[in-house]
Specification:
Layout: H1 12-15, H2 22-28, H3 49-55, H4 65-70, H5 79-91, E1 94-100, H6 109-116, H7 133-136, E2 141-146, H8 152-159, E3 184-189, E4 193-197, H9 207-219, E5 223-231, H10 238-250, E6 254-259, H11 267-275, E7 288-290, H12 305-315
Parallel strand pairs: 2-4, 2-5, 5-6, 6-7
Antiparallel strand pairs: 1-3, 3-4
Helix pairs in contact: 5-12
This protein binds guanosine-5'-triphosphate and magnesium ion (MG).
């Protein structure tokens, strides 16, 4: 039976007996192999090799089927829904807005504190608090969390770059050097939502950066969902499990995104190893999306980005008719 449920709801009932038989699915997956001799229907046998190449269908990587497998509890987005969200992201103006090394530096937070408390830190106002709209500008925010070098900044660029392009925009600064992003960095997407890039945890990170991110995810009212990024090349690690535990214990909703799937050389092995991670039994039943932001011979397109865009839309409460705004605040 196919179960369809709303995101973010506690559905512990569903967690029981929710196992995925990866082996069975791998065996039943119909792989699309692009054969060099493959020719289109009605093509003439004498066609040149270069012409045949033009018609050759690009192979879909085997790991892509994981997207359907792990999100079977949710309604699969239709092609038209994916087209709508793609249109939104492709036509949105992306604007870098702010960086913050301390949570108090996040726009709206300092003034909220000042207006809310007297000098001794006691609550000054009870009930409704006045915070200037232009400082808070209540757009929904999503945050990218993950180990340093997991691909957070790159995924932000990938999401905001037209899928027809292989060269990514450079809104967020990415680097081969782990621990490159040191602050929270916010990007406005079409004046409808914000994506906040965070400093990675683990190698080359600092306690202060970790505290900053934790403070942000616990206190920021505008934050509607965290996205935990995990490199497919490295797979899920101890630190990732700690973050999952932390988010779950605080009741902070999150989704999981595997990045760098183009670097996974043995898809079958990867798929079998994800089965042991019990990802489908995680509290809150997060969506699990598998993506690549860099293209290669084995991954000629950026896969999973449209699914992630659709998930972000759902988390931000945006309808498929949402269009980017080019003036004003909304
Ligand atoms: N092959 C491949 N490389 C990727 C992908 N995503 C990111 N990278 C590379 O991984 C490296 C790290 O990417 P970043 O986006 O800077 O990683 P980050 O998580 O922001 O890292 P910190 O800022 O250090 O926390 C860069 O060299 C990227 O080009 C991907 O999907 N495929
Ligand atoms: Mg970064």
């Amino acid at each position: 039976m196919r179960l369809t449920c709303q995101r973010g709801l506690s559905i512990s009932r569903l967690l029981k007996n929710r196992t995925i038989d990866v082996k069975k699915i791998i065996l039943s997956t119909k792989y699309e192999h692009a054969s060099p001799t493959e020719s289109p229907k009605n093509s003439k046998p004498a066609e040149s090799a270069s012409k045949i190449k033009k018609y050759t269908k690009k192979p879909t990587p085997v790991w892509y089927s994981l997207n359907e497998m792990y999100n079977a509890s949710y309604a699969k987005p239709t092609t038209s829904e994916l087209n709508s969200v793609n249109r939104f992201f492709n036509s949105s103006k992306i604007q870098y807005e702010w960086s913050a090394a301390h949570f108090a530096d996040v726009p709206g937070e300092k003034i909220k504190n000042k207006l809310n408390t007297d000098g001794a830190g006691n609550k000054k106002f009870h009930g409704k608090t006045y915070v200037p709209f232009e400082l808070v500008n209540g757009l929904p925010e999503i945050a990218f969390l993950g180990k340093s070098n997991a691909g957070k900044s790159t995924l932000l660029n990938s999401l905001t770059t037209d899928l027809k392009q292989t060269e990514l925009g450079e809104y967020a600064k990415a680097s081969k050097r782990a621990g490159f992003t040191k602050t929270l960095n916010s990007f406005n997407v079409g004046k409808k939502l914000r994506i906040v890039d965070t400093p990675g945890y683990g190698f080359n990170s600092s306690v202060e950066q970790g505290d900053l991110t934790m403070e942000y995810v616990q206190q920021r009212q505008q934050l509607v969902r965290c996205f935990l990024l995990i490199s497919g090349e490295q797979n899920i690690g101890k630190l990732d499990y700690q973050i999952i535990e932390f988010l779950s214990s605080k009741g902070i909703p999150f989704e999981i995104v595997f990045t760098k799937m183009d670097k996974v050389t043995n898809s079958e092995k990867f798929m079998l190893s994800t089965q042991n991670m019990k990802l489908s039994n995680l509290p809150g039943l997060p969506g699990i999306i598998f993506t690549n932001s860099v293209t290669s011979k084995n991954c000629p397109k950026r896969y999973g980005i449209d699914l992630l865009r659709h998930l972000i839309f759902q988390c931000c409460g945006l309808s498929r008719d949402s269009i980017p705004s080019h003036n004003g605040n909304t």
